[in-house]
Amino acid sequence: MSLQATAAPAAVRLPRWLVPAGVAALFVAAYLVFKGTGTLPHDKEAPQFLAITDLREWIDANRNSSPVFLYFVNYIRIYVGELYTALYVALTSLGWPGLIGVMGGLGWLAGGWRVGLAAVAGFGSFAVLGLWDESVLTLTLVVAAVLLSLLVGMPLGVWAGRSPRLRRLVTPALDVMQIMPTFAYLAPLVLFFQIGPIAGIVATMIYSIPPAIRITALAIEQVSPTAVEASASLGATRWQTLRKVYLPLGRSTMALAVNQTIMMALSMVVIAALIAAPGLGDIIIRGLSRAQVGIMLPAGIAIVVMAVVLDRITMAAARRGPHDRIGRARLLGAAAPAVLGLAGTAVLPAQYPEDWSVRFVTQVNEAVRWAETNWYPVTAFVKDVTSAVLLNPLEGLLTSAPWWLVAAAVLTVGWWAGGVRPALTALGCLLAIALLGVWEHAMSTLSMVLVAVVFTLAAGLLLGVAAARRPRFSAVQRPILDAAQTMPSFVYLLPALALFESTKFTAIFASVIYSIPPVVRLVEDGIRGVPETVVEAATAAGSTPRQLLWKVQLPMARRAIMLAANQGIVMTLAMVVIGGMVGAGALGYDVITGFSQRSDFGMGFAAGVATVLLGVMLDRITTARRSS
Amino acid sequence: MRVAPERPSIDPAGIKVTGLWKIFGPRAERVLAGEDRNLDPEELRRRTGCTAAVRDVSFEVRPGEMFVVMGLSGSGKSTLVRCLTRLVEPTAGEISIGGEDVVRASPAQLRELRRHRVSMVFQHFGLLPHRRVIDNVAYGLEIQGKPKAARRERARQILALVGLDGHADSYPDQLSGGMQQRVGLARALAVDPEVMLFDEPFSALDPLIRRDMQAEVVRLHREVGKTMVFITHDLSEALKLGERIAIMRAGAIVQLGTPEELVGAPADDYVADFVRDVPRSEVLSLRWICRDPEPGESLEGPELPAHTVIKDAVPVAAASAQPIRVVDGEKLVGVVDRVDILGSLAPAPAVPEKAPA
Amino acid sequence: MRMRLLAGFLVLGMSVAGCGGAKVDTAPQTGAPTAGSAPASSAAGTVKIAINPWVGYEASANVVAYLLKNELGYQVEMPELKEQVAWEGFETGTVDVIIENWGHEDLKKKFIEEKKVAVEAGSTGNKGVIGWYVPKWMADKYPDITDWKNLNKYADLFKTSESGDKGALLFGDPSYVSNEEALIKNLKLNFKVVTGGSEAALIKSAQQAQEQKKPLLFYFWDPHWLFSKIELVRVKLPPYTPGCDADPKKVACDYPELDLDKIVSKKFADTGGKAYELVKNFSWTNEDQNQVALDINNGTDPQEAAKKWIEANPAKWQAWIPK
């Protein structure tokens, strides 16, 4: 748009496509001329990496002498460690029947017998899957991280909800945190907290704190200003107003904050297995390193089940009306499974007997092997065609183009799509990536993201439009999307790995299925959000359904679709990076290498930072320009 | 309709406001200190980014009076009423309620003032949805730290007063809008304040319910005899309730007077335009239309006091061929005949008249 | 992560701590409160054996774990940790035992000599060597391919969709000991390291390469059960001389043959009692390990695979049990 603005004063009115086409031609010409020059090939021993590795060595050596550690970091370690131990002892001392019963009771209390039953069945399944200990460890980590998130996040959120100034301060930080791929959190934490569950908890806490702050602030903001004023007019102190008005009135939204925090934490805690946080994630890593879906699947199921149960319980709590009271019947009902479970702990064996659990590792492995051999022609075809037609050419283009040409292209696209400031931010990110010494791998990752985004948007638009136009289709699709969105990202690696083994395409496939649900949802909501009256008017004017879609609904849903694209890109990036574990290479692999090879820590760290920069860059470019 | 306090529960306090300013925006103080304060609102916003919601407002409310502030939306009336207890912090000016300096009150003093002396009823009720009606009404007492039994007892009495017995254990969202506002009213009454502030309390209600509620306020005013400041954008409501009415425009009071004075002698075109459609015969008294008897005119007609509303004089005039003699006590003020009365039923003249001395 | 507190820290609170600061103490300190990886339910007898991601390692670990559990009554935790991460676990308390260590002289220097948090616990009896391999059919068809000098000649054969216009050298788990990047650079090979991501990917590719006569050059190691299933031929790199791999950037020689050994945490060595004795005594042959590893790879539960070997070889393991 800005480009057209510069062209506008010309006396002869040029066709609209001319300027973009001309610019594109210019880039193509520049590429052909300068191809292969000004590239920044990857060097594992780049001085930047070595400097960071040295820093880590220094920190390791000074962990017990530097005041930053003595008086700050080590305290956090100690307290978080204590919390973790205490929670673990508390949860395990309930015994497996006790914990199942207590969860059932909590579910019943929050949402009635259905939720209670779901909780019992869900937690029972952990034992049946033979993953009880791992599940409890994961739960411990989640609870610890969520407690800490809420402890810090809720007061901050309340504060931000009441102080626009603080809110302006924290919002950009939260924005960046939310587009940061999960992987990027790990390296800095290892730097300060070494490996293990404590680093895992802190990483998880940092990852899951944005919704705690953001949604709490929203809850506070949403509280009826008149109610607040009424309270103030009666002479309430700030504390009284907070306790008697803000908190009760914001309660259900804050329950949503808890819900979101838990969901984020659960998704991160699994990834924290990479820095030796124990639990279900450990099993997934084990499966990944043996390329056995059979090992991963039960753990994947357990994670999803845990997500669903915790989601149900907290959502039920969030849905309660402002003055719903918990009746005596429900209280008794809730007490029943808890008491029963605790009684069970006294009677039943302390360890869930192994022969009561169902194991299907071998069967799953065989099924996967069967699929691999029998579907091989199809999956290999899809994989090879995508690699040959899209991925490799694009990667070749990005890695062989001079860095300044790529930067210029990003600047141009950013300018065209978002305006001057986003374009400059994007450029800054790109240059920082170059300075970090991970240019080539960043370009590889970028090419994978772009390919994945093409698939994601195509599928997302198709499904979203279909759902918006056919309520019945939507009714079928919604619960699937709901379930998909509660699934931690790691779980998406499973089907991808089962179908495509370890290649770049595997990561692309995983990111596509990971990021489709929100895209579909946003597109559907956007199209549905077109005002009824407009649709009526267009129909009255004799539009066919197709015309209605192309000329009315899609253009009017443009903002939602832009948002969908933005979300799709950010999520795709997060997953492509995780895909480093299943053959995607590039930045994600660098991050993993950084954790597993001490001498490559610096490279992993730089790659982690680069993923953040890449995320910010893509986000800035695709954030729809404010309507002026 | 205007009723003097009969049974005041405590001594109502008067309100005195002098030179009150409220300017919203980044550099309010500087605007106030400079010449910019005299700019018109549009210009002020353009130049300084500030909005002057209340501009140099002064008035006095007598103890026990029902004082109405009327204006269209954006005229600053809601800001004005919030300034009175510093729910909105005034930029400049003096406010005293019952002799207490509000502007210079410490936070603790201000809280005491709000807790015990002044309470407020809001347009959107501002009830707490998670509390039962009774606990909403008792909220102010709870804030004061009154024990539960005592505050519930008091809340029950007040609920009876506003006609909500039997709804104590309902939740606000189970009540109609009118009933919710009765709860709001009860909450304000429960702390037994000297002054009650009403911020457009009925504008969110249906017309019929609004009428009931207006009658309710009139009744309460008579029964409890509080000083009341009532904000409204509805002229007929203002005329119905107000002993005196202040008309606000762009943050300033353009006219302050009794309903008769506003209708009979609008201070400028703005007010005149406002009151044009008011049925003058229902507001004005005979004093406003009587004239000196013409030479030879009969003075044998019936006699009516000067404060008789014109409408009420119609049957008398219809029954008598002679002009009505308008008297103030023993003194003859003037006469009106059928023609004069008919003339007064017509819409207000475009040019404001002079108020009688 | 196991952490010890300054003695009495929690009792005395911040006041004391404020003077001294909190140290993450790594010196052995019996009876100190732990904030460990899996806070042990019965802390007295828990042994944490790190699991490195290859099946031979898993075989050794599971045999030792089985004996610890069933013969000595210990509890065993087996956290999945990469090699170097496991070494760090000695310091943080996440790990008591690494049952099969491949060299790692740098780590030995750091954690054993400098930080003094780990000690060597003797050889596993296994000889280990890493190398580059091609399937037998390739060595038959292109006899000179087994010398690195001729690799560039055949680079085209090894191209894949992942390696672009260079030959692919398939690598395994990112945590494995690796000189591949440096070797390619320093030997000026027209190859690119392609990461399969796991041992399983290497095995699968090797099997396919032999069965379907597909070209493959890959990173692999001995001892491995795979050698008993398919024939693989090692590519000769410039011979190893002591010190030729000192600078990881300048490595241009083959991997050395290693005496695989066991490393345990200092604390475990001091307080591990019979468990430590068992770990120290553990020693078996490459054939022993391959038997168990093959079973695990074929889908047998590792515990079952270990049990099978133990039942079949009582004489061997009974020698390990401390008296």
The profile of the biggest β sheet of chain B is:
6 strands, mixed
What is the CATH C-level name of the largest domain in chain A? Mainly Alpha
Computed over alpha carbons, the radius of gyration of chain A is 26 Å
CATH topology-level name of the largest domain in chain A: MetI-like fold
Pattern of helices and strands of chain B = EHHEEHEEHEHHHHEHEHEEHHHEHEEH
Helix share, percent of chain B: 25-40%
Beta strand count of chain A: 0
Question: Please, how many helices of chain A?
Answer: 27
Based on secondary structure, the structural category of chain A is: mainly alpha
Number of β-strand runs of chain B? 13
Distance between the termini of chain B: 24 Å
Chains forming the largest contact: A-C, 70 and 61 residues
Classified in CATH, the superfamily of the largest domain in chain A is: MetI-like
Which superfamily, in CATH terms, is the homologous superfamily of the largest domain in chain B?
P-loop containing nucleotide triphosphate hydrolases
CATH architecture of the largest domain in chain A, by name, is: Orthogonal Bundle
Number of domain modules of chain B: 2
What does this structure look like?
The complex is a heterotrimer of chains A (628), B (357) and C (323). Chain A has 27 helices and no strands. Chain A has helices at residues 2-7, 18-34, 47-61, 67-93, 95-128, 132-162, 164-179, 186-193, 197-222, 225-233, 238-249, 251-271, 280-290, 293-319, 328-347, 361-400, 403-418, 420-436, 439-469, 471-486, 493-500, 504-528, 532-540, 545-556, 558-578, 586-596, 601-622. The longest helix of chain A is centred in the middle third of the chain and has 40 residues, at 361-400. Chain A is globular, with a radius of gyration of 26 Å. The longest helix of chain B is centred in the middle third of the chain and has 18 residues, at 207-224. Chain B has helices spanning 28-33, 41-48, 77-84, 107-117, 133-137, 139-144, 148-161, 177-190, 207-224, 235-241, 259-264, 269-275, 280-283, 310-319, 338-345, and strands spanning 15-24, 51-61, 66-71, 92-97, 100-101, 118-121, 195-199, 227-232, 244-249, 252-257, 303-305, 324-328, 331-336. In chain B, 37% of the residues lie in helices and 21% in strands. In chain B, helix 14 (310-319) links the parallel strand 11 and strand 12 (324-328). Chain B has 15 helices and 13 strands. The model of chain B is unreliable at 1-10 and 350-357 (pLDDT under 50). Chain B is globular. In chain B, strands 6-7-8-3-9-10 form a 6-stranded mixed beta sheet, with helices on both faces. In chain B, strands 2-1-4-5 form a 4-stranded antiparallel beta sheet. In chain C, the strands form 2 sheets. In chain C, strands 3, 4, 5, 6, 7, 8 and 9 form a 7-stranded mixed beta sheet that branches. Chains in contact: A-B, A-C. At the A-C interface, helix 4, helix 9, helix 13, helix 16 and helix 26 of A face helix 2, helix 4 and helix 8 of C.
